[in-house]
Amino acid sequence: MNTPKIVKTRAELKAAMAAANPGSLGFVPTMGALHSGHASLFKAAREENELVVISVFVNELQFNDANDYAKYPRQLDADVQLAAAAGVDIVFAPEASEIYHAGLPLVKLDSGALGEMYEGASRPGHFDGMLAVVAKLLHLADPRRGEYRAYFGQKDAQQLVLIRRMVADLDYPVELRAVPIVRSDKGLALSSRNALLSEEEKEAALVLHRSIQLIAGRAARNEPLYIEDAIGMYQMEPLVELDYFVVVNPDTLQELAFNCQDTPFTGEGLVLVAAKVGNVRLIDNQPI
Ligand SMILES: Nc1ncnc2c1ncn2[C@@H]1O[C@H](COP(=O)(O)OP(=O)(O)OP(=O)(O)O)[C@@H](O)[C@H]1O
Ligand SMILES: CC(C)(CO)[C@@H](O)C(=O)[O-]
Ligand code: BAL
């Protein structure tokens, strides 16, 4: 197993990149507390690139809830071990002062109407803060302007759509790769915040996947979706508070008319769900 180089500053990262001088770079930004979902991103990057760089940075700017930020799991030593096993070459683990070296950004990225829907409605400012750090990290990770790919999980579907728009709108010289959701044996989408759930809450959280599966099954059979049946499943789970359950266009995330109608499902869609389990907000989705 290789031992990744851990770099903490921009200068160290730049020097490590210059020393490696790779023909191709795969970059995976994360907030740490790594699990097998992250590992699948690292492995995808490993397969396609000479050098794999990841970042571990809990970006305060994308948290609208101070408690969520304070409680976010942090475990750099374990993260480095997981990164090593997945073949990562460089772990960039900066302090906030290293990222926001000139203070908090005065010039901001605006995630627009898309950033105010779904996750953005429940976490005001989240997507602007997320774009701010992804924009910076994409620059910092690759000072060379060579063959460059960045990897994101399909689990954060709205995030991925916004990053695609930013990369297209601002002409970032990077190819984006989307990696499918990795789940537990029982179907729970892996997430760093799952570590904050009790065993009972983890069982209750399985309703997210179950409810999506109900709708995905109907979609596969071209039946009417009757989304209210999926929403009804949440009433049986006192530990789970549903935020939204919608079927949307996978590219624009606009709600599809199938949501409340008797029409048989045809075409393509994306089921998006978010719910609070205890104090922990979870999201999940599935293309249909
Ligand atoms: N289960 C998963 N399958 C595939 N990709 C994932 C999974 N979990 C996270 N990712 C991806 O890993 C990258 C880093 O995510 P992040 O560090 O926020 O972890 P996370 O598990 O999503 O944590 P949380 O949802 O609690 O913030 C993102 O691109 C995210 O979509
Ligand atoms: C992309 C990201 C690393 C930016 O902080 C974060 O939003 C995440 O982990 O999904
Ligand atoms: N994985 C998305 C990052 C966040 O929840 O802030």
From TrEMBL:
It catalyses: (R)-pantoate + beta-alanine + ATP = (R)-pantothenate + AMP + diphosphate + H(+). SUPFAM superfamilies: Nucleotidylyl transferase (SSF52374). It is found in: Cytoplasm. Keywords: ATP-binding, Cytoplasm, Ligase, Nucleotide-binding, Pantothenate biosynthesis. It comes from the Bacteria. Gene3D superfamilies: HUPs, Pantoate-beta-alanine ligase, C-terminal domain. ATP binds at residues 31-38, 153-156, 182, 190-193. Beta-alanine binds at Q62. Its EC number is 6.3.2.1. Pfam families: Pantoate_ligase. Pathway: Cofactor biosynthesis; (R)-pantothenate biosynthesis; (R)-pantothenate from (R)-pantoate and beta-alanine: step 1/1. InterPro entries: Pantoate_ligase, Pantoate_ligase_C, Rossmann-like_a/b/a_fold. The active site is at H38 (proton donor). (R)-pantoate binds at Q62, Q159. Transmembrane segments: none annotated. Its main location: cytoplasm. CDD domains: PanC (cd00560). Catalyzes the condensation of pantoate with beta-alanine in an ATP-dependent reaction via a pantoyl-adenylate intermediate. The reaction proceeds by a bi uni uni bi ping pong mechanism. Belongs to the pantothenate synthetase family. Homodimer. This is Pantothenate synthetase. It comes from Glutamicibacter nicotianae (Arthrobacter nicotianae).
